[in-house]
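help with these tokens:
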Amino acid sequence: MNITTGKQKRPQRLVVYTPEGFGKSTLGSKFPAPLFLDMEKGGTDHLDVARVTADSYAEAKEVVAHVTGNSSEFGTLVVDTADWLEKRIIEHVCKTNKQDSIESFGYGKGYTYLAEEFQKFLHSLDGVITAGVNVLVLAHSHVKPFTPPDAAQGYDRYELKMTKQTAPILKEWADALLFGNFQTRVQDRQQGKARGVGGTQRVMHTEHSAAWDAKNRFGLPAKVEFGVEALNELIVPHKGPRIDSKGSEASESVTTPESAPDALDPILVAFEEAFKAKGLEIGEVVDFLKLRGQLSDSEGFVDVGKGYAQRATENIEKFAEIVKETLA
């Protein structure tokens, strides 16, 4: 039995959503050695960053697989944006099932396929985390009416600009869901009307409010300045050679050996190598462990207990057989 204590620093699953044109991509460019998965076709043209423009869901998956297998080249994978990724997945689901639109499946079946495929993509991002690379998912916000079940009247609130099938999945997956907006205040009413003033200072909300969704597991202040500085303690620095926007190796490394965090636990590395040798992928193992209650819905491969991983590795033949039977 391998018992560990204390905090374990690892790459984080961060989701940042804001109104359009707020500076999400600029924030992502400040993360360690970022590679942008540009789903918006030109959304990062104004930035001097490394990027891959994905015109389809298949191309997006290829980028994730490349980062997972070449993790030393990157410090952060930036998905820009989740709502455009969702559109590409919808296109994939419709094409695969020979449907004209997500609505044409009937009985909400198309949205079920969408949610399943979106969950698989998040599992693939867990593989990026396991490889030692931060994951930052950017998304747009929109205002939607909301009526709590225990209230007589509803109100408007900011939400992820995604379908009701995928937004909850992304929120549960994230270690931190952060909402960026301009700081405003309501001036005293004059002639029966209230006037908003301010609106120039960018802030990031880290805790849930009636007006927006947000969460964090790190004890961040409820409101911080919108910038990477507020998140520095959460971000794992890049340990390998930095790749510049032209795809060349940069002359300097982002971190020194003294400041670099520990690599992924060797027990998990051995476990991953063992089940991959038996034809299993990380997403399949995570699905199995969630079904068995070894992981919660919001946890990924990096959260697997070390003792469990070691026992599974020692009995990998039986483990792989059970996983395949369960998921068949």
